[in-house]
Design brief:
By secondary structure, the chain is an alpha/beta fold. Helices cover 58% and strands 9% of the residues. The protein has two domains: 157 residues, NAD(P)-binding Rossmann-like Domain (Rossmann fold), CATH 3.40.50; 79 residues, no CATH class. Helix 4 packs parallel to helix 5 and helix 10 packs across helix 11.
Length: 279
C-alpha cells in the first residue's frame, strides 16, 4: 500500500520495485501487472531492485522490516540512502540501521504519520538519524514533505509507536463500545451521551486531567469496569479492551498517591513513575 501510494504520487519514470509476493507463483503475475500499471519496473529479485540505486524505500509489513534491510544490505551502492518507512519499534529500526550502515549505506528512520492512500507522497512524515539533513534534501527533491526530528535513529519511530497506543487503542475501544451498543440496541443513546461528554481539551491537557482521576478513583473505576466486563460477556462480546482498562485503573488506584497538588503534566507523570518504581 505505501509503496504503490508513493509511486502514484511521484508519477515518475525510473522507479523499480521488488515485492516478496513475486516469489509466489500464484501472486507474481498480479503483482507485476500492478507495478506495470504504475509505470514501475518489476525487478526479478532484491538484488536487481537495489543494486545501483541512490534511494531505496523500504515499505513492507512490520514483521518483515529487518529482513528487508538485511536482504538489501549486500547490494547497496556506497552512500545510498535506505529510507525505512515501516511501522516498527525503535529497537527494530536500530537493528536495521546497523546492518545498512555496516554495508556502507545511509539509513534514515522515517515515520509515516497519517494514512498514505489519500495524500500519497505528500503524507506527513518524520525523519531522524545521522543522515537526516542530506535525506531531507533528497526527499524534498521528490516533492515530499518530511519534518526533521533531531535525534538518533528510533526517535521518529518512538513518536509514531507511542502515538499509536492512543490512535489504534481508541479505534479498538470504539469498536468494542459500539459493538456492544449495537447488540444492546442503545447506539444512539450511547453516542449522544459521549457527544455531550466531549471536553474540547487537547490531548496533553486531557492526559493531565485523566491521570489525576485515575489515581484518585482508580479502585472504584476498576470495580465499575468489572461490571462492564460482565455486561459485554452477557452480550456475547469478548471484552479484550475492557480487561486492559480494568488492569490500568486498578494499578493507578493502588499507587495511593494524590496528584491534585501537582500542577504540571510533567510533575504528575514523574510522580506516577516514582510510585510505580517503589511498588
Amino acid at each position: 500500500e505505501a509503496g504503490s501510494s508513493l509511486c502514484i504520487g511521484w508519477n515518475r519514470l525510473g522507479v523499480r520495485s521488488f515485492d516478496i509476493k513475486q516469489t509466489n507463483l500464484d501472486l507474481k503475475a498480479a503483482k507485476c501487472a500492478e507495478m506495470q500499471d504504475l509505470g514501475v519496473e518489476a525487478a526479478e529479485d532484491v538484488q536487481a531492485a537495489v543494486q545501483g540505486a541512490d534511494l531505496i524505500f523500504s515499505t513492507v509489513t512490520a514483521d518483515q522490516a529487518f529482513d528487508a534491510a538485511s536482504s538489501a544490505a549486500p547490494w547497496l551502492r556506497p552512500g545510498a540512502f535506505f529510507f525505512d518507512l515501516n511501522s516498527c519499534a525503535p529497537s527494530t529500526k536500530q537493528k536495521s540501521a546497523a546492518v545498512i550502515e555496516a554495508a556502507g549505506g545511509r539509513y534514515v528512520d522515517i515515520a509515516v504519520m497519517a494514512t498514505i492512500t489519500s495524500k500519497y507522497h505528500h503524507t506527513p512524515m518524520l525523519i531522524c538519524g545521522d543522515h537526516s539533513d542530506a535525506a531531507l534534501t533528497a526527499l524534498l527533491a521528490l516533492d515530499m514533505t518530511p519534518k526533521l526530528i533531531p535525534g538518533p535513529v528510533g526517535r521518529a519511530s518512538t513518536i509514531k509507536m507511542v502515538r499509536s497506543v492512543l490512535v489504534k487503542g481508541v479505534e479498538a475501544l470504539t469498536a468494542e463500545c459500539f459493538w456492544a451498543a449495537s447488540k444492546a440496541d442503545v447506539v444512539d443513546e450511547v453516542a449522544a451521551s459521549l457527544d455531550a461528554s466531549q471536553t474540547g481539551m487537547g490531548w496533553k491537557a486531557q492526559a493531565h486531567y485523566n491521570v489525576e482521576r485515575m489515581t484518585t478513583h482508580g479502585i472504584r473505576r476498576a470495580a465499575e469496569m468489572r461490571e462492564v466486563h460482565k455486561t459485554l460477556i452477557d452480550l456475547g462480546i469478548t471484552p479484550d479492551m475492557t480487561r486492559g482498562t480494568i488492569d490500568r485503573q486498578q494499578q493507578f488506584g493502588e499507587l495511593k498517591i494524590s496528584l491534585v497538588d501537582f500542577d504540571s503534566f510533567e510533575a504528575r507523570f514523574a510522580a506516577i513513575e516514582a510510585a510505580v518504581k517503589t511498588e
